[in-house]
Give the backbone structure.
Amino acid sequence: MTSKDKKSEPNGSSIIASRVSREIRDISPYSVPRFDCKIRLDGNESPFSLPKEVQEKVDRAIKDISINRYPDPDAKSLVELISRVCEFPKEGILLGNGSDELIGMLITTFSSGTGKILCPAPTFSMYKLTGLAMGAELIAVPLDQNFDIDLENSMSYIEANDPDLIFLASPNNPTGNMYSAGKIAEIISVARGVVVVDEAYSDFSGYTFLPLIKECENLVILRTLSKVGFAGLRIGMLLARENLVNEINKVRYPYNINSLSQAVAEVVLENHEFVTENIQLIIRERDRVFNALSAMEPIKAYPSDANFIFFRVNNADSLFSRLVEKDILIRNFNKPGRLKNFMRVTIGTPEENDSFLSALSEVLSS
């Protein structure tokens, strides 16, 4: 075939298309709509920047980095610091370029049994996206009417399919609530595969399953620095028994945590008192915003254990556009089915939250 013949083929090159797996062709890339709004309450990030004295320490640490050299491949100093903060053995800690990379590493490592992954729905989309991209079969079990785990259906699917991996985000994104601890414990006890409890938002719930690792060899905990003020660092943390971590570490890419992220993360963790204060403020603001939303018609707000609030309106698309016009960005989840007319707002500073509530009230009353 000549180069001219190749160019004439419809939809680009069939040669390239034939090399792309059906799983990849059938999915869409992870995408978050970007709007140039002054107030951004869409990404579940912390609204607080570093205190001046901590920023100065960060600046000094960055100046000492040799950019021409590879980073510490094992991020040993950072792992040891996280071990002390979490009071968990360093041998059971593995870091990733965000939790997203760790999710991919888990699926790569534990996928040679049944090739099936189970997770509730709705939940964090990367479990499904990454699983499908890697050729796994996804089993989505709908949450109950309170967005809690449907234990009966989950147990039936686990018994019938024996999934290699089960992903349980608690608190869950986008719904914001923790799953019932007893239901999670029961799933862990019957699952023959690995159960991953994603605790990305546990700093706002005050609850963790970390102590259960001593009793459960198949339990993995995921955490992140992204939600408490350091989304730009992309530091995800995996905590499990040493034997599991050793297996997962075999598929980790070399030098996956860059030198800048390692250095900055060490500084902020060594000076983390301000983080605790910010978390407490966000929790107070979360409760205030929830009460305000609950008092608005026709909004239905759902209690949250995270740093955001999930709520339903009559017309999410229209409300989203009207808020963007007012320079306020939140997350629109509207699509047919369970998420129809649902939205999510991240808790910002008190001033940002006031602006959001005021704009929302104006839109609803107009």
The chain has two domains: 33-49+274-365, 63-270. Confidence is low (pLDDT under 50) at residues 1-10. The chain is about 40% helix and 15% strand. The two ends are 63 Å apart (CA to CA).
